[in-house]
Amino acid sequence: MSFSRREFLRFLALAPFVPAVWRAAGGSATAVAPQQTQPTGQAADTPNILIFVMDAFSARHASLYGYHRETTPNLSRFAEKAIVYHNHYAGGNFTSSGTATLLTGTYPWTNRAFNIRGTVAPPFTEQNIFTSVGEGYYRLAYTHNFLAQLLLNQFMGDIEHLLPMERLFLTDEILSDILFNRDINTAMLSEDMILPRDERLPSSLFLSLADEVRRGVRAEQIQKLYGAQFPAGFPSLTEGNHPFRLEDTIDWLMGQVREMPRPFLAYCHCLPPRTLSPCAEFTQLFQDN
């Protein structure tokens, strides 16, 4: 018996159902591949999604992309089992526009976040990566970056767990989301505008002195705990302010990935160790003889 091409294609479309039909008719199907198990409550067609952004990280200085020093051994190992892109186009050349494009899939002149500290136009607060996955996904987000935080705050209605950025800093100096959590973006922008360059709140002479003492005590505690790990100084959001340890963020994210409901969409936007503040393990690694 011969098959036409059309009949053969029809048969292929029905092939996945043949074992089930055979078993229902009392037969025994052999050589059936075992089914992969999914986490409880997760269907096979709903993958988990993890978006990890390393802010201000230059491909020119990554060995993965040809830099002559071995700067990214872990990324290189990961890339062996991944798709690596070598030609990228950014939606903007600074945090606000670039992140808004990443989060909404639209250009800055469409989402309107084309200024520093910019946020997206109202229609895009409901048109973003968190709404794109549809119902059933658990959505989580975190960022070290103040400008990215302004954007994530716009989408908080679609995020089950938006961790405040100061939670993963070594000091808690951001007052906005503690005191004005219902008006977070306005509060954060106002706080950023009124603070002087040293980021100390204006106050009376007595309160200023008290704040200096408090800051000094906290800085001394941090130095005792982690100073040996960072002999060149701590990585920080701004010069000397809001210090953090990148490994704290990675540990937190790994814990969330293990424990949060499935399927999930997790967006983590980190700052790398900047201002020449590597940990002790790497301080001597790139000093030329």
Task: Give the helix/strand layout.
Blueprint: H1 5-14, H2 18-24, E1 49-54, H3 73-79, H4 95-104, H5 108-111, H6 129-132, E2 138-143, H7 146-154, E3 161-162, H8 176-179, H9 184-194, H10 205-226, E4 236-238, E5 241-243, H11 246-259, E6 264-270
Parallel strand pairs: 1-6, 2-3, 2-6
Antiparallel strand pairs: 4-5
Outline:
The protein is 35% helix and 9% strand.
**Structural class of the helix and strand makeup?**
alpha/beta
Oligomer designation: single chain
Rg, nearest Å = 25 Å
Proportion of beta-strand residues: 5-15%
Counted beta strands: 6
Characterize the main sheet.
4 strands, parallel
Helix proportion range: 25-40%
Overall pLDDT metric? 78
Distance between the termini: 78 Å
Principal-axis shape:
globular
Question: What's the order of the H and E elements?
Answer: HHEHHHHEHEHHHEEHE
Side by side, the strands of the main sheet go: 1-6-2-3
Flag low-confidence runs. Answer: 1-38
Number of helices: 11
Written account of the structure:
The protein is α/β, with parallel strands linked by helices. Helix content is 35%, strand content 9%. It contains eleven helices and six strands.
Summary keywords:
289 residues, alpha/beta, 4-stranded parallel sheet, two-stranded antiparallel sheet, 11 helices, 6 strands, globular, disordered N terminus
